[in-house]
Hints:
By secondary structure, the protein is α/β, with parallel strands linked by helices. The chain has 17 helices and eight strands. It has an eight-stranded parallel sheet. The two termini are 24 Å apart.
Amino acid sequence: MASPLYPQPTFAADPELASFVAQIPKTETHLHLEGALPFLLLQEKDPKKPLPEFWAADFRYRDFGHFLGKILDPEANYYTSAAHYGRAAGLIFGGLAAQNVRYVESIVHLPTIVEADGGPLAVLDAIRQAAADHAPGLSLKIKAGMTRDNWATHAGPIQEALKWKELDGVGIHGTEEIPFEPWTAAMWRRFRDAGKFTEVHAGEFGSVESVRHAATVLGVDRIEHGIAAVKDPELMALLKEKKIGLDVCPISNWRLRAVESLAAHPLPVLHRAGLLCTLSTDDPYFFGNTLSEEYARAVRDVGLSRAEVLQLARNGFEVARIPDAAKAEPLAELARLAAKEAGPRVPAGRERVEELQAAPLRPAGETGRNLPDGPDFLRTR
């Protein structure tokens, strides 16, 4: 499933499966704009530029630090101005619209937009204008991401962001090796009081307790990744009760070695336990994936039925931060597709649940440490 933005020949779905995926109205709720750098923009500088090595079908990063090292490549540091953000966003959103994506939550790294030529408000305006120009039917929310320790260097901009009308929400991303700091809970309450949504990355490489902290102390209603929750039945029950969404990115998890294989990914167990899971791409430039591929491989490799991936798509609209009236049409389309795929939901077998809860999500010793030196942006996702 190649895309003009990421024209890799590494995955081809069965034509009938590809047709099914194309019909699904989708949401993209975990998309780092800086990590979605369109390959076309690099080709403009060098028409003979080869495809990145990390698009190879069997490529996997050694660990999270190896991934961050790829972001250190100067070519990845494209986002230096509001104009650059706008140009890239137009290509990205146009590519998503071509995949039948109706709703997007795009993450921008707060320190990077603060330092960009034109300033953060100009960057946010440029991104919104790009969506209007290149994907007029797309509903867009923009959230500013920051690392767990960004308060020490960017307390001022973080507090200024409370007043940015162009900003819809905030999130924590980057390495999970850094513990959550006390400032986060207090600031997240202030952002919610200011009418902005809050979420965090947790439970990809981090512990069960990091997911629990996000749900109970930080008070978020969405967690990026969150797959470590499969290790704790009580935590899964809590997430289900609170209806906290998990924005899951299986291909990212596999390439980063957070899971041993796509077939071993805990998404089926989390979904069949009734958690509110969605599908997203994370950083498609660095993982060589598309949202259509995520859906196709969820069926082919992860082990979900077609009816189940339709429910994941439905979950995306259920957690979408748009009026119910705007959700009605895509939900009706999903209902029609689901009627064609009607059948009993496959329950998670007790043996499968116990196996995933007992086994590590990644090989022992792969903790995501060995972070390279570099600017703050390079320590984030």
